[in-house]
Amino acid sequence: MQKTVNNKAWLLVIPVFICVAFSALIPLMTVVNYSVQDILGPDQRVFVGTEWFLQVLQDDDLHAALIRQIEFSAIVLLIEIPLGIALALTLPTGGWRASLCLVLLALPLLIPWNVVGTIWQIFGRGDIGLAGYLVNALGLNYNYTASPIDAWITVVVMDIWHWTPLVVLLCFAGLRAIPDAYYQAARIDGASPWAVFRYIQLPKLRGVLLIAILLRFMGSFMIYTEPFVLTGGGPGNSTTFLSQYLTTLAVGQFDVGPAAAFSIIYFLIILLLSFIFYTVIQNLGKGPAS
Amino acid sequence: MARIELKGLAHSYKAIPSAPTDYALRPMDMTWEDGGAYALLGPSGCGKTTLLNIISGLIHPSQGRVLFDGKDVTDLAPQQRNIAQVFQFPVIYDTMTVFDNLAFPLRNRKLGEAEVRSRVHEVAEMLELGADLKHRASGLGADAKQKISLGRGLVRKDVAAILFDEPLTVIDPHVKWILRRKLKQIHQQFRLSLIYVTHDQVEALTFADQVVVMYEGQVVQLGTPQELFEAPAHTFVGYFIGSPGMNLLPCRLDGDAIAIDGVRLPLTAEKAQRARAAGGELQLGIRPEFLRCLAAPQPGAIAADIEAVEDLGNYKIVTARLSGQVMKAKLPEDETVALGQGWLLLPPARTRLYAGGRAID
To answer: What is the pLDDT, as a whole number, of residue B56?
Structure first.
């Protein structure tokens, strides 16, 4: 077949190029620009090469924040995904009960993130907060402003409260998309409820779970507002996650060069981990069986 | 294998059915003989899938009992009934291999692994799935998937019957007949009871020894394909089976004869009596294959206006109008018919009388 050469086609893709350029490429290149220069003043700048990258990579505080961040994302994913699936399985399958449950579940998703932080900041207080007061009344010594463990628990519980509903909604939609015939066939085949879950529901949920895991991974890995409002990263640095560390670096200390270098590393980490998740889940249950 | 009896069976999706139309399945008694190949034929929404799901136990009937070999199974769950069912869309367990799919019903019933292996291999052999046993089921075509669904039924030794719910809907036409023949072959080999739901008359007539025609929640006729063709018990059967369907001509009784357009077709006294007793609208039914077209009047022939003659290569379809009613006749290729005035002859042996939709014999 003869290939048609028509340069007018470029005109059609130019709008997309422009949009992507302004929304992603140009801001990203600005960051790249900062990351390789030392900006001393509005007109004074020095090219420093990879110096900022090396400095950032050797920063112990950053290593600690990165480890905290990975721990946080791992904990959040390990709880929210199974909990979300479990809740979606127990929801009513239709009618007004299902609608009511979905609306109630979706409420946390509608609350602005800094308000979520404020809610939990008050909720967890020992003096005027319902949860904090009750836990202390039970004889447990709970104070998220003083104990790193308590602060961690509060941040994790807050995130679970805030984001598990998203996983539930996705799984609920995924479960509704399974044709009845599968359940009927499973009944006729004498499958146990566990086998129905393992061989029908879980495989059919793969697509939505991929989205849920990616969204929750990225969301939790970039978490900023809620812990910032709740604990301010403390006590000490115990709940300072990567984005808060980055903000302190860029806005607080105005170390634009290292902050830019770190932004790029941060971005690459998220990209790499998302890609790994995506590839692994896509290939689960596919390919030649052993 | 089992003989399946339905006693006073009815089902309604409404809690308190009041009118007959509230029933998805109107009260019926029926027996499916052991080892029979039955087709359940009817248009969409006539209750055939409901009936099938009641037999398999997926639906609990509102009233009546289901008996397998005389044993009441109405309250048993599908897995306790030993029924296999193949659905319209192939159901396979995506993450499993073909082998594991076939083994699934056996493993759920805690059979020994050695026996599982021998049963699965036997069924795979029969369905020509042997080469794919180690492959993942999700990568196969619709026909192979449907074979796996069927295989999951066949693999169990104790199945009372295998139910099919329009299993060939998503199969390519050229594979359809291969699968259908396979099914027929398996039926002949093992004498399994098969009940096959379809809205496709060709599929029903070629597959089954006995065809059950359903219409608006009731069984209107059970018979061999030949009986359905030659002696439809209900106008619906006449109209639904055959292409074109049966001609239905409104008529009235005049003493011991049927009167149409001034022509009298004599009846026996008893038949006229039965027709009168049955009540309801009277109709004469004749298949296009039996209706004759004449160029000249003849005793018993009714004058009609021949409107169109379509030559379909190996036969002709004549469209005639008889006192406002359109009639179709299927004539041999070599017969010539002129447009305009003509006469239609209804051979008495091939003409059936219906009162209120039901045949008067």
So the answer is: 87
DSSP string, A205-244: THHHHHHHHHHHHHHHHT--HHHHHHTTT-STTTT--HHH
CA distance B155 to chain A (A): 11
Q: How many CB atoms lie within 10 A of CB B32?
A: 23
- Whether chain A has a CB inside 8 Å of the CB on B142: the answer is no
- What gap in Å lies between CA A35 and CA A38, rounded to an integer? 8
Tell me the shortest Cα–Cα distance from B31 to chain A, in angstroms: 22
Question: In the predicted model, what is the mean pLDDT of residues B274-299?
Answer: 85
Question: B281 vs chain A: nearest CA distance in angstroms?
Answer: 42
CATH match for B4-239 among 3.20.20.80, 3.40.50.360, 3.40.50.300, 3.30.830.10: 3.40.50.300
Does A199 contact chain B (CB < 8 Å)? yes
Q: In chain B, what is the greatest distance between 2 CA atoms, to the nearest angstrom?
A: 78
Give the residues of chain A that fall short of pLDDT 50: 288-290
- Render pLDDT for A207-254 as a digit per residue (tens, 0 to 9): 899 889 999 998 898 888 888 887 877 787 888 888 888 888 778 777
Closest alpha carbon within chain A to B155: A189
| pLDDT tops 60 at residue B75 | yes
Interchain contact A290–B (C-beta under 8 A) = no
User: Which residues of chain B are within 8 Å of residue A195 when distances are taken between CB atoms?
Assistant: 104, 108
Count CB pairs under 8 A between chains A and B.
Answer: 69
B111 in contact with A at a CB cutoff of 8 Å? Answer: no
The identity of residue B54, as a single letter, is: I
A17, B28, B75 from B72: Cα distances, Å: 71, 16, 8
User: Rounded CA gap, A258 and A39, in Å?
Assistant: 11
Query: d(Cα A249, Cα A257) in Å, to the nearest integer?
Result: 9
Is A285 close to B87, i.e. CB distance below 8 A?
no
The CATH architecture assigned to A60-283 reads: Orthogonal Bundle (1.10)
Say whether B77 and A187 touch across the interface (CB within 8 A).
yes
Q: Which of A187, A192, A285 sits opposite B95 (nearest CB)?
A: A285
For chain A, the domains span 60-283
Complex ipTM: 0.77
What residue spans in chain B does CATH classification 3.40.50.300 cover?
Answer: 4-239
CA distance, residue A284 to nearest chain B CA (Å): 9
Q: Does residue B105 sit at the A interface (CB-CB below 8 Å)?
A: yes
Place of tokens 């006590």: A235
Contact of A8 with chain B, judged by CB distance below 8 Å, is answered with: no
A189 and B149 within 8 Å at the Cβ level: the answer is no
Say how far residue A129 (Cα) sits from the centre of its chain: 27
Taking an 8 Å cut-off on Cβ atoms, the answer to whether A192 and B88 are in contact is no
pLDDT at B298 over 50: yes
Domain B243-360 class in CATH: mainly beta
- Residue ranges of alpha helices (H) inside A231-255 are 242-247
Positions of CATH 2.40.50.140 in chain B: 243-360
For residue B193, pLDDT over 50 is answered with: yes
Q: Does residue B76 belong to the interface with chain A, where contact is any CB pair within 8 Å?
A: no
Determine the angle formed by the axes of helices B142-154 and B98-108, rounding to 10 degrees: 30
Relative to beta strand B71-72, strand B63-68 is: antiparallel
The string over B335-353, giving b where at least 16 C-beta atoms fall within 10 Å of a residue's C-beta and e elsewhere, is: eebeeeebbbbbeeeebbb
| Mean pLDDT (whole number) for B342-352 | 86
